[in-house]
Amino acid sequence: MTGGASGGHPELLAVGDVGVDSFAAVDHLPRRDEKLWVLSSEDLPGGMMGNVASVAARLGCPSGVVARAGDDRHGDLVAEALADAGVDLRYLRRIADRTFNALAVTEPDGGRALLQYDTEAFHADWSAVSPDGLAATRWVHTSLDQERCLSAVASDARAAGVSMSVDCEYPYILRDDVVDLLDGLRVVFVNEQAAEALGGVDAAIAWALDKGCRTAVVTIGEKGCVVGNLAGEAIGVHVPAHPVEPIDTNGAGDAFAAAFAVAALADWDDVAAAQFAAMVAALSTTGRGGQGADLSRARLVDEADAAGYPWRDDVP
C-alpha cells in the first residue's frame, strides 16, 4: 500500500471533517429520562472524511484529506491514525481549537445515536489546495454539511475537470442552493432519511439526475442500495447488502463512498462499483469505529468469491 505522502499526489481528496468518535456501548438506546450503564467506552479516529480517506487508502488508492484538526490529544490521535493508514496529510491543518468530536452511543446490534460537539475544526480549509494540486487529483469527495467551502470545491473541481462526489444527508439535502451543485457532478450518495425527505428512493434518484448529476446512489442500510445514472445503464437498479454480522455501523456510509470512488476510478460501471461498495461498507461494520475493520485485499477477494461477485484485478 502506498499513500500520497510517499511522494506522489493524492488521487482522491476527501474534503471535510476528521475527528474522534467517542463510543459508549449500552444495552439499548436510551429513552427519555432513562438512565443506562455504559458497558464500555473508547476513543477512535473518525469523522466522515477521515473515514473516506482511510478506507480509500487501505483499498490501495492514494488518498488525502483537506481538513482541520485541533492542537489537542484528539488531533494527535487523528493525524497518527490517518498516517498509519497511508493517508496524505499535506492539506491537514492544525488549529488552536478542539478537534471535531462525536459521541456515538451504540447498541450490541450496531444501532447508534450520534451527538456532535461544535468546533471550528469541523470546517475544511479549501484554500489550502492550490490549482496545481487540484489538477493532479482525479476525484474529490465532500459532504453537504461543508457549507463554507462547498460551492468553491464544486466550482474548482468542475473547472479542473476533476470527478466529484457528494454525501447528501438530511436536512442539508433540502437547502435551496444544493441543486446548483448537481450539474455535471459524478455521483451523489443519498442516505435513506434524505431520500425520504425527497419523496422516496425513486424520487431522490430522479431529482438528482434531472438536475444533471451523472449518477445517483441511494443507500438503504441493511437493504443495500439503489443506483441510477444518466447513461441509462442503471435505472433504479437494486444492489443488495453484503451479509455480515455487524459490530458497529459507524462509518459504513463513508466506506461505501470511498469504495465506490475507488472502483469508479478503475473504470468499473456503476452497478459493479455499487456492488463493491456495498461489500466494503458491510465489512467496515465488522470492526470498531469507521476505520477499524479488516479491509485487506485477501479478505475482500474471499468475500467477493463467497458472494459470487466477479473479482476484478484492476482495483488497486
Give your account of this protein's structure.
By secondary structure, the chain is α/β, with parallel strands linked by helices. Helix content is 32%, strand content 24%. It has ten helices and 13 strands. The chain has helices spanning 48-58, 73-85, 131-135, 150-160, 179-182, 192-197, 201-210, 252-265, 270-284, 297-307, and strands spanning 12-15, 19-25, 40-46, 63-70, 88-95, 101-106, 112-117, 139-143, 163-168, 187-191, 215-219, 225-229, 235-239. The strands form two sheets. A nine-stranded mixed sheet has the order 5-4-1-8-9-10-11-12-13, sandwiched between helices. A four-stranded mixed sheet has the order 3-2-6-7. Helix 1 packs across helix 8 (252-265). It is globular and about 50 Å long. The model is unreliable at 1-6 (pLDDT under 50).
In short:
The chain contains 10 helices and 13 strands. Helix 1 (48-58) packs parallel to helix 2, helix 1 (48-58) packs across helix 8 and helix 8 runs antiparallel to helix 9 (270-284). The chain has 316 residues and is α/β, with parallel strands linked by helices.
List the secondary-structure elements in sequence, H or E. EEEHEHEEEHEHEHEHHEEEHHH
The average pLDDT is 92
The number of helices is 10
**Class from secondary-structure proportions:** alpha/beta
Low-confidence residue ranges: 1-6
Rg from C-alpha positions? 18 Å
Percent of residues in helices comes to 25-40%
Annotation, overall tally of beta strands: 13
The largest sheet is: 9 strands, mixed
Q: Beta-strand level of the residues, as a percent range?
A: 15-25%
**Gap from first CA to last CA:** 9 Å
Q: Within the largest sheet, what's the order of strands?
A: 5-4-1-8-9-10-11-12-13
- Describe the global form: globular
